[in-house]
Amino acid sequence: MSGTFAEWQPRYAERGIPTFPVKNKRPAVRGYLKLGPVRSRDLARRFSAHEAFGFALGEPSKITVLDVDTPDERVLADALLSHGQTPIVVRSGSGNYQAWYRHNGERRHVRPWQDYPIDILGRGYVVAPPSAGTRNCYAFIQGSLDDVAALPVLGGLDAAAGLTARSDRAICEGRRNEGLWRHCMRQARYCDSFDDLLDVARTFNEHSCARPLEDEEVIKIARSAWGYTERGENWFGTRGVWFSADEANSLIRTDQDCYLLLSFLQANNGPNSCFMIANGLAKVLGWGEKRLAAARRRLHKSHVQRLRGPSSQTGAAIYTWRNTKTGQI
């Protein structure tokens, strides 16, 4: 009986996407980033029983993936709002998300936005639906392979140009251990097990270090980060509220409503978030709508900027921070 790879390889090939077999989320063959349609077809015969497969990103497939490394649908919604809607969204085997776009020269950028669990994958590979995953099968939750030809270009990257350029540089020797440890600490809270975190660590080591560390060292670093996380001592990448003493004292003395509203927004939205300050928030804060509207107007002059006005078609207004450092812990 043929497995998932053998069944789906021709379907992806019809869209110009060469695929290869995957085992335990890792390619089962060498040269997978450079294979063409002929070798892909041969691999489907040789590995016909495999239940998972992937494809190379960038030039081979003409696809870039916005990898949302959390099952939180709000983060996915923010990402699509910031970078453009796309007809294809995939849920991974661990419950996270991939949003597919047409490749436009993007490279691989791991966490270009420091407080968002999102990667830009314009190189490397991804496991593709409907592969068997660690807990569930990868699945198209929006669109299908028929929509590949209609993929839009990934947008909203200009503001992160400096960050993405920096993150694309390979980490040199002498800084690899620290870089990997910090990456593991940030990613650990999105992992359900040590094995999940180890997979994240190995991927980062393979793609982001100029000379990858030995696997024994990678395991040691991942285990250290997982230990901090299990003990509740890992605060990397968490969202919180921060004010300078001068700003806090000033707001408390002169505008306590702005202080309360700003604290609520910071606690629930990271520095790169797009968010609403809709009238329904008044009930959450125990205020009247006029009180909320007045505080919102004052924040609009100092801390937030409006990206889109309210309308009957699109709903409430959308805001973002004037200063992207606002809200960082």
Identify the notable features of this structure and list them briefly.
329 residues; alpha+beta; Arc Repressor Mutant, subunit A; 11 helices; 38% helix; 15% strand; disordered C terminus
Quick structural overview:
The protein has helices spanning 4-14, 37-46, 73-83, 161-167, 176-187, 194-208, 215-230, 245-254, 256-268, 281-285, 289-302; strands spanning 19-23, 26-27, 53-56, 63-68, 89-91, 97-102, 108-109, 118-121, 125-127, 139-142, 304-308, 318-321.
Can you describe this structure?
The chain is built from 11 helices and 12 strands. It has helices at about 5-15, 35-45, 75-85, 160-165, 175-185, 195-210, 215-230, 245-255, 255-270, 280-285, 290-300, and strands spanning about 20-25, 25, 55, 65-70, 90, 95-100, 110, 120, 125, 140, 305-310, 320. The protein is α+β, with helices and mostly antiparallel strands. Strands 7-8-4-6-5-10 form a 6-stranded antiparallel sheet.
